[in-house]
C-alpha cells in the first residue's frame, strides 16, 4: 500500500489516541487535517496559531514518537496554520512552521508571520524619547505567583496560557490574553502571577498591574487636570499591561475610547496585554464593539470552579503555608461544602483557625459546620412557598391556579401534595401557613400531604423520581 499524508496521519492518530485521554484527543487532534506528504515531511493543518503552540508545548514528544514510527528517524512535521486575517483582508492565509523538537523553543513561530508585515509600526508623535528610563512601580503582589497557584482541570488552560505569556511576553499569539471566570476563582491571582514571573525573567521590562477601576479614576482625573495626553503616554511606554476586571469599563465610553487607543498602540508594538473579566467577551455588556473584537484577538481562557480534588489541594496548600494542621475529615468537609468560590474557601479556613485559637478549642467538625454555615448561608437562595408552587407546577406542566384548585384529579392532588411537602421541608413556615398559601387548606391536610409523599416515595419508583427531580430543582 502506498503511503499518503492521510494514511500516515491515520496511523499516527491511532497511536496518539492510545496515549492520551479521549477528551484531549477530541480537543487537540480531531480538528487536525493531514495535507501533504513529501519524502519524510508530513504537513498537518491546524486551526490556529494557538493550537500550534499548544501542540508544541504539550504533545510534541508524542507527535515525534508517532511520526518517527511511521516515517523513520528523519521524520519532519510541518504545521500549516489557517489564520483569520484580522486586518480587513477577507482571505485567510496560511503559515508554515516546521515543528521544533524542544517543547519550549518557539523560535520558529516567528517565521515570516505575514500579519506583522501587513501592519507597519505606527509612528506615534507623542512618545517622548528617553521616557523609557522612567521607573514605573509594577503594583504587583509577589504573594500571588505561579508556585502557589495550584493547577487543576478547572484552570489548566488559563494557567498554561499565562505561563506561556510570562515566558514570552508579546511573543505568543495570546495577545491579549483574556482570563475570565466567576468571583473568587483566581483571576487576580493569575494576573499577578504572570506579571511577577515576567519581572523575574525580564527585569528590564516595564510591567504594570492596574485594576480597571483605578484606570478609570486616573483617566477621569487626567481629564479634569487637562493632561489626558500624559496619561496616554504613560500607558504607551509599558511593555506588559495587566488590567484587572475590565468588565468595569462597561458603560464608560470615554475610558473605553482611551483604552482602545492604548491597547492598539501596545499591540501594534508587540507589547503584551493581559486582561481579566468576570464574563466571557460575548456576555460583556455596554462595551464598544471595536474593543470587544480586540479582546477576542488573542486567547480567552476561562477559570472554572475547581473540582473536589483541586479544592482539597488548595486547602492543604493554604494550611501548609500557615503552618496549621487539620484533620482530613474537616478538610474534606470544607471542600465538599464550599464549591464555587476559592476566596470563600480561604475565608472559611482562616476563620476556622481563628476561632479555634481564640477559644482554645480544637478544630472539630462541629466548629467547621458552624463556620461553613456562615459562609454558605448567604449564597443559598431563599426559597419561598410561591417559588415552590411555581417550580412544582412547571414540572407537571400545569399552572399554579390548577395546582391550588379544589379538584380531586389524582395527578393534580399529587402535585399539590408535593408542593406542601417541599414547603414544609424547605421553609420555616408552619403547617397552617403552608395550607393557607397552597389553595387555602388546613394544617391537617398539609400534614397528611407530607405523610403521603413520604409513603409514596418509598413504595413508588416513579413518584420517588418526582421527589428527586424537584428536590434538585429547588435546592440547586
Ligand atoms: P478573582 O480575582 O477571580 O475574584 P482571586 O484571584 O482574588 O479571584 O482569588 C481568590 C483567592 O483564591 C485568592 O486568595 C487566591 O490566592 C486564591 N486562589 C484562586 N485560585 C487559586 C489556585 N488555583 N490555587 C491557589 N489559590 C487560589
Ligand atoms: Mg479579582
TrEMBL record:
<dbReference type="Pfam" id="PF00308">
    <property type="entry name" value="Bac_DnaA"/>
</dbReference>
<keyword id="KW-0446">Lipid-binding</keyword>
<dbReference type="GO" id="GO:0003688">
    <property type="term" value="F:DNA replication origin binding"/>
</dbReference>
<keyword id="KW-0238">DNA-binding</keyword>
<dbReference type="InterPro" id="IPR010921">
    <property type="entry name" value="Trp_repressor/repl_initiator"/>
</dbReference>
<dbReference type="GO" id="GO:0006270">
    <property type="term" value="P:DNA replication initiation"/>
</dbReference>
<dbReference type="InterPro" id="IPR013317">
    <property type="entry name" value="DnaA_dom"/>
</dbReference>
<feature type="domain" description="Chromosomal replication initiator DnaA C-terminal">
    <location>
        <begin position="384"/>
        <end position="453"/>
    </location>
</feature>
<keyword id="KW-0547">Nucleotide-binding</keyword>
<comment type="subunit">
    <text>Oligomerizes as a right-handed, spiral filament on DNA at oriC.</text>
</comment>
<dbReference type="InterPro" id="IPR003593">
    <property type="entry name" value="AAA+_ATPase"/>
</dbReference>
<feature type="domain" description="AAA+ ATPase">
    <location>
        <begin position="173"/>
        <end position="303"/>
    </location>
</feature>
<feature type="region of interest" description="Domain I, interacts with DnaA modulators">
    <location>
        <begin position="1"/>
        <end position="113"/>
    </location>
</feature>
<dbReference type="GO" id="GO:0005886">
    <property type="term" value="C:plasma membrane"/>
</dbReference>
<feature type="binding site">
    <location>
        <position position="187"/>
    </location>
    <ligand>
        <name>ATP</name>
    </ligand>
</feature>
<dbReference type="Pfam" id="PF11638">
    <property type="entry name" value="DnaA_N"/>
</dbReference>
<keyword id="KW-0963">Cytoplasm</keyword>
<dbReference type="GO" id="GO:0005524">
    <property type="term" value="F:ATP binding"/>
</dbReference>
<dbReference type="GO" id="GO:0008289">
    <property type="term" value="F:lipid binding"/>
</dbReference>
<dbReference type="InterPro" id="IPR013159">
    <property type="entry name" value="DnaA_C"/>
</dbReference>
<keyword id="KW-0067">ATP-binding</keyword>
<dbReference type="InterPro" id="IPR024633">
    <property type="entry name" value="DnaA_N_dom"/>
</dbReference>
<keyword id="KW-0235">DNA replication</keyword>
<dbReference type="InterPro" id="IPR038454">
    <property type="entry name" value="DnaA_N_sf"/>
</dbReference>
<feature type="binding site">
    <location>
        <position position="184"/>
    </location>
    <ligand>
        <name>ATP</name>
    </ligand>
</feature>
<feature type="binding site">
    <location>
        <position position="188"/>
    </location>
    <ligand>
        <name>ATP</name>
    </ligand>
</feature>
<comment type="function">
    <text>Plays an essential role in the initiation and regulation of chromosomal replication. ATP-DnaA binds to the origin of replication (oriC) to initiate formation of the DNA replication initiation complex once per cell cycle. Binds the DnaA box (a 9 base pair repeat at the origin) and separates the double-stranded (ds)DNA. Forms a right-handed helical filament on oriC DNA; dsDNA binds to the exterior of the filament while single-stranded (ss)DNA is stabiized in the filament's interior.</text>
</comment>
<dbReference type="InterPro" id="IPR018312">
    <property type="entry name" value="Chromosome_initiator_DnaA_CS"/>
</dbReference>
<comment type="similarity">
    <text>Belongs to the DnaA family.</text>
</comment>
<dbReference type="GO" id="GO:0006275">
    <property type="term" value="P:regulation of DNA replication"/>
</dbReference>
<dbReference type="InterPro" id="IPR020591">
    <property type="entry name" value="Chromosome_initiator_DnaA-like"/>
</dbReference>
<dbReference type="GO" id="GO:0005737">
    <property type="term" value="C:cytoplasm"/>
</dbReference>
<feature type="region of interest" description="Domain IV, binds dsDNA">
    <location>
        <begin position="357"/>
        <end position="476"/>
    </location>
</feature>
<dbReference type="Pfam" id="PF08299">
    <property type="entry name" value="Bac_DnaA_C"/>
</dbReference>
<feature type="binding site">
    <location>
        <position position="186"/>
    </location>
    <ligand>
        <name>ATP</name>
    </ligand>
</feature>
<protein>
    <recommendedName>
        <fullName>Chromosomal replication initiator protein DnaA</fullName>
    </recommendedName>
</protein>
<dbReference type="InterPro" id="IPR001957">
    <property type="entry name" value="Chromosome_initiator_DnaA"/>
</dbReference>
<dbReference type="InterPro" id="IPR027417">
    <property type="entry name" value="P-loop_NTPase"/>
</dbReference>
